[in-house]
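Record 1 of the preview.
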Amino acid sequence: MASLQDIGVSALINILTAFAFLLAFAALRIQPVNDRVYFPKWYISGSRRSPRRSGNVVGKFVNLNFKTYFTFLNWMPAALRMTESEIIEHAGLDSAVYLRIYILGLKIFLPLTILAILVLIPVNASGGTLFFLRRDVISNDIDKLSISNVGTKSKRFFAHISMAYLFTAWICYVLYKEYDRVAFMRLHFLASQNRRVDQYTVVVRNVPRVPGHSISDTVDHFFQRNHPNTYLSHQAVYNANKFGKLVKKRNKLQNWLDYNQLKFERNPHKKPTRRSGFLGLFGKKVDSIEFYKQQLHELENSMVEEHQKVLKDPKAILPVAFVSFNSRWGAAVCAQTQQSRDPTLWLTNWAPEPQDVYWKNLSIPFLSLTIRRLIISVTVFLLIFFYMIPIAFVQSLANLEGLEKVAPFLGPVIEVKVIKSFLQGFLPGLALKIFLYILPAVLMIMSKVEGYISLSSLERKTATKYYYFMLVNVFLGSIVAGTAFEQLDSFLHQSPTQIPRTIGVSIPMKATFFITFIMVDGWAGIASEILRLKPLVIFHLKNMFLVKTERDRERAMDPKSIDFPENLPTLQLYFLLGIVYAVVTPILLPFILVFFGFAYLVYRHQIINVYNQEYESVGAFWPHVHGRIIGSLLISQFLLLGLLSTKKAANSTPLLLILPILTIWFYKYCKHRFEPAFEKYPLEEAMEKDAMESTSEPNLNLKAYLADAYLHPIFRSLEDIETGEVRVDKNESHFVSPPISELSSPSPPHTVYHYEVEP
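->
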């Protein structure tokens, strides 16, 4: 059991670590050579150019203005300067809604911390129970501030029950107000957008194959018959893996051509050369520019031939299509209704926005989806169960006194003061963080196997799996495993009837482990987020060895999106810890509060300057955030109910029974009140928006507007192949054909290929 001294050592280490990271960030971010690492968002938007100045060589890479080194905290007020509406315009609604999770944490835990310190800590500290149980239960000064220090049948428990009701009422009130606010932001964002192509488009899956007819003909016939007044056009999806490999190869050749042309421009007196054989190491010397031009010409001819083969091959077309309508109302009716008597055919959903589509899963049949999800559910369950083994070992490091009683030979090592403080105050949280680091990638693969068709859905499902993993292994596993190791000696030397009482007293004591975890992950970990050490090293390595052109440099500095699959579950774990321990061991709350405040500042800075959101789901993850905080409330209530039952508080315990019922009622009310705004598009809103735009833009050619919606800008058309670059997306394994009305032409003017590319 970590003592107050151990917690102090951990706090000192993590504060110094966080401060060192902030100092390093302050120095690194003002260096011209690092500008693209710490401000890539502004480069992508075109608002920032390289700060390298002419003059001496050192000044091009190092900031020689020493006054700027003393303003290492000026990023904090700069991060707070941008308003929420400006953040939405700059980074999108998803980023703004993500920041509201940190605001929600501050709104919830600031009043809870004040009340707990003023009311519950004095009540717990004056209990004195642990003094009389010191022979049976291992405890320290921190545990005397928890509910474990209150004696059995004590009237003091009425204070805890009153605070439980008050905390629940406040949390529900804040949750309601935030849900209402985010739902309004979502609807306002959708209404303020002039036109979003996904509001006119539905993705149709499991299209039946009709003998003698192509998939395109079948889709066209079905929607002309069933949606005659609103159907506009559709885009079929083709399998084009071979074409994708050709495009990937062309990109590499184009990059080498650009590199050699730039090299020749810098030194016109010396033409670049290479050998014509294997890897440029064998054969005769040739002009590099002419060599790559010839290679590109031959490859582009092969691409055109492959393109024609795919279009003519009826087996290449997949049973899925993007169907466009002439109004939002028409798309809403189609997306939100069943299209066929057979519920497994003609499956319609709102199409993700083009940047959000995960193309590889579009063609998975309905039956396969069901089997895949069943298999993955079983696999996730097994993964969660077997991960308990390393988690239990990690917890043993945080409970060395209990382990020492069972294994006395470890005593000489454990009793070394420095080693003991390090093991108990720092190592458990760090080891647990390393275990969790490799997990999100595995869970993302599982979500992809399940067959979800949008990146946002994949990330939300991965976040769900990760949250359940942390709930079972990090939270419940830490309590159970930690208590078992810690009280093992006591369990072996007492009657079975006393074990439930010992567990009930010991569970609140695990707050000391979670305090160290919060400091490692939530203080030093958040400081490392703003330092961006890993992206910094990777950028400079790529810049030295791989970057040959400006396009390469843009790819090297790509900051990617916010890591929702990992960040959302981690945030929800902090909510769980804070809510569960608010009544049980309130000394944990100030550590949670520091995390939310510090993380809000850091992620505000990162969203403004670093992250470039890949897609826009319009805050679709908020219902999951709301539901899991409600789940945390229920867990805290049942935990408190169990604790009071071990304390023989028969008079006060029944008062808690109504609290979970009220909480579930509140969840159902919010679900019916707000969740439809995140799943469906109101027909009334669709009709009003259509009428408004038909008045303001009466001459708009909607068919032309939607024709390239799911084609550009991910790829260029074949007509642009000689002047532009065909860009590769690693997610994509198919290509979308032009609307059916254009397929009769020998060379479709707009065809974009989506294909599988190995990383």
